[in-house]
Amino acid sequence: MITVVGGANIDVIGTADETLRERDSNPGRVIVAPGGVGRNMAERFVALGHDVRLIAALGDDAHGRLLQDDCARLNIDLRHARFVPGGRTPAYLCINGPDGDLRLAVNDMAICAALTPEFLGAQLRAMNDSALCVLDANISAEALVFLAEHVRAPLAADPVSVAKAGRLAPALHKLSLIKPNVPEAERLTGLSAQRAGEPALAKALLGMGVARVFLSLGARGVYYLDEYGGDALPCYPGPVVDTTGCGDAFLAAAASAMLHGADTRTCAKHGLAAAALNAAKRPADLHAITKIIDDGGIT
């Protein structure tokens, strides 16, 4: 069993047909779908064959009911989630360019504050019975510190955004795995990638106690590092429909490979393959991931 603690929300994703024009209405496609870093990772873990419970905060509104129905369909266990009467279920609004890459986003995740140390303390038995506990920084710094101090299962984490990444700083020494992008790693380490270099960011995180670092380089791939060394790996080639959720897919696949005993380089390859499938909006089970690794990309 894998336990994910973090955000579940409704995504409203707009992708422009042509170059975005500010202060104007841009023709394109708008999709409304279940999302959230925690919920997305839970879905990816299920696709990889794991039993998953999700500890998230939801309101008793229409969006909350939609997310409950979605998790039931996916067999994601919500029995330890927090349901807040009168609360507003989280939402994420983003605008993508015609290449499917993010240009701007707004998130409304205030209800995640309901995942307090007191509430999470009542869920410790479930988390400690897990093979892995995955955290996202949508929850408060106090909650993250509490979990780092009390959860005995291995911990993995996603910083979510630059604004929220700093919440993870006091918990870094307890993490088996982290997947920041470059700006998030700069926020956590206080270093500049331009001056120090991207490998130095990963090395700094390793020095702060993280066992395995997967530094996302965006379209350039990932730089991985553990105590035995590191290297940069490029993205697997394939069509890009929408990059929303690629980081979540990467972390789930890399962490799943870690649980199966893979070395860090192999974990990175699994993550990159899952991200490529997510960008192409194709299912990302273990067979599909292995095929991309063997073929060198999406054919």
Keywords:
299 residues, 37% helix, 12 helices, UDP-N-acetylmuramoyl-L-alanine:D-glutamate ligase, 4-stranded mixed β-sheet, alpha/beta
Provide structural commentary.
With 299 residues, the chain is an alpha/beta fold. The protein has one domain (2-7, 35-87, 109-295): Ribokinase (UDP-N-acetylmuramoyl-L-alanine:D-glutamate ligase, 3-Layer(aba) Sandwich). The protein is 37% helix and 24% strand. The chain has a 9-stranded mixed β-sheet with strand order 6-4-1-10-11-12-13-14-15, with helices on both faces. Strands 3-2-8-9 form a 4-stranded mixed β-sheet. Strands 5-7 form a two-stranded parallel ribbon. Strand 13 (212-216) and strand 14 (222-226) form a beta hairpin. The longest helix has 16 residues, at 264-279. The mean pLDDT is 95.
Topology:
Blueprint: E1 2-5, E2 9-16, E3 28-35, H1 37-47, E4 52-55, E5 57-59, H2 62-74, E6 76-77, E7 82-84, E8 91-96, E9 102-108, H3 117-121, H4 124-128, E10 132-136, H5 141-150, E11 155-158, H6 162-165, E12 175-178, H7 182-189, H8 193-196, H9 198-207, E13 212-216, E14 222-226, E15 229-233, H10 246-259, H11 264-279, H12 286-295
